[in-house]
């Protein structure tokens, strides 16, 4: 029997396309307007990295919650959605469009009005797609300073914080009336337009904002995981994830029959078994490239 603590994450969502071999779903579109804020993230994937990596992340603020994630997750899901729609019509798996490089696979949701934080990953538990994560209520002890500075086009004020084993310096703008910010950060009298730790391992800077359509209900991943959410205690989440890194797709291999493993991926000459092995190696290697998490404790 499969250990219920053996879970598998989606990096960068490519292997979810194996699911159409097992069942099909109907995708419908439901879009509402949201406030989308774009943050450039500069970070050191390893503590001893000689140079920073760069990624673009977005903070989508809605009426009752906000969601922070890698922008390429949104792009990747959109591409996967189109591939899946074509497969529904033709019965042929076509992966001719390369998916973008997703640097951060987590999502952070903050629920209004208490700003309870939910940290999740869209993962595979064997053959079952789930949203896996934990919830926590953070009471940030901000120290607001008198110092002000222009951050891009925004007039910002300084605040400092100790969190996750790092000392953070933040700049917030009261002209943007949201008590929110990138990652889990929130609680200042204005949107955080820049925040970085004192060692500059992580730096989030607001680069722009616009109105956008909320296509989350049209998400391929959400359609698969709808109603299948597993929230556990944070310590258990962390332990389970560490175990997962050792062999990302072990449970998936164990649940597939020899007959299915020997089948050929539609539209390719690759066996299902080889497809899974290739995905598993890519996921495992991705973790070796990043041993410098935002939260160190």
End-to-end separation: 33 Å
Order of H and E elements:
EEEEHEEEEEEEEHEHHHH
Strand content: 35-45%
User: How many strand elements?
Assistant: 13
> What number of structural domains do the residues give?
1
Organism: Chryseobacterium culicis
Protein name: GLPGLI family protein
Pfam families: Porph_ging
InterPro entries: GLPGLI
Please provide a written account of the structure.
The chain has one domain (8-288). The protein is built from six helices and 13 strands. The chain has helices at residues 71-90, 220-225, 234-244, 250-255, 258-261, 272-288, and strands at 8-9, 32-43, 53-61, 65-70, 106-111, 116-125, 128-136, 143-151, 154-163, 166-173, 191-197, 202-214, 229-231. Strands 1, 2, 3, 4, 5, 6, 7, 8, 9, 10, 11, 12 and 13 form a 13-stranded mixed beta sheet that branches. The protein is elongated, with a radius of gyration of 20 Å. This is GLPGLI family protein. InterPro entries: GLPGLI. It comes from Chryseobacterium culicis.
